[in-house]
Amino acid sequence: MYGKAFAPEYRGALGELSVNSSLEEVLEKALEQRARAEQDGSALESAHAGLAVAEASRRLGRVAEAEDAWRKSYRAARRAGDEGAMAWAVWSGGTLARQRGALALARRLLALAAELAERGGDIVARGYSLAGLAETGRIQGDYRAVGELHEKLLAEARRRGEARHTVWALEGIAQMHRNTGSYDTALAMFEEAAAIAEQSDDARGHAWALRGIADVVSLRGETERALELLSRAERTCREMRLVSALAYNHKMRGNVLFRAGRHEEARDCYSGALEEFRAMGEPRGEALARLGLVKSLARLGRDGAETAAELDELSHTLGGFGLQHAREMVDKARAELGLVTAGAGTAA
């Protein structure tokens, strides 16, 4: 039903690159191709190569380089008069904005990318841009607004047999089910995503799906299985140099260990993830790792007043990203730690 996964963000002369190509390899080849295209005066090839530079840099956590690259790609695409290439560049910029926690900017850029893609007749770019909008809304906790879009994109991806997008949509919908307590449905969807990703040779999608499965089975008390799944995903992240995915993997390992009452190990995992997020300039991940670290330190005997003060700061920080469920996340932490009555907060 599904063919081999492909990476449409690698375009033009770089179109032969695999979805599983190491990011260092992609970056090296893209920089070389961009230099050749600029020397040859080919604006469109420069735009294509610049997009690959932007995406490899973003996934490697090199935020400044990614920002510069997507803007250069957009300017080259505009010189070439290619609205499809312009859409891909703006999609990359919107995805970077989401990664950096600038969710309002992400929505604006991704909406513009979808508009450019529609005008340029690039169906895939439009799909990726709409998917980006759906993911941004999901991260903000606006499930009612984006749930229907996720389902629509899943149906379209299944109909066209696009493995990578099917995996993405399944994971997004599964995450919403997980966050609203429908664990059986979430687990089934994460497992389907993992199976499709494995069959289509989508290593990145498989790693993210394993992380989702680990989260749900951990909630059921299956700690060792969850840790083994995360170890499998971590190997892929390291092989492909998926810096952001690796940091989120480590944060999830902290979650699993914390749930199991292994607070010292959890503290160490959260601390490592925190440094990884800081190094790549990903403030949303940094704030979530800090939340886990605060809870671990509290369980290890940290002063309650210090814990409460940091939770207040985190509530403000997470709220600043436009996360609708931020207050509930922090309130739940306060309740768990006995800093408020148990009924004061609800689960995110």
From TrEMBL:
Residue spans crossing the bilayer: none
Keywords annotated in UniProt: Coiled coil
InterPro entries to which the protein is assigned, alphabetical: TPR-like_helical_dom_sf, TPR_rpt
Record SMART domains: TPR
One Pfam family matching this protein: TPR_12
Name under which the protein is recorded: Tetratricopeptide repeat protein
Coiled coil listed as a keyword: yes
Species: Streptomyces morookaense
Keyword Coiled coil in annotation: yes
Coiled coil: 20-47
Gene3D superfamilies: Tetratricopeptide repeat domain (1.25.40.10)
Top-level taxon: Bacteria
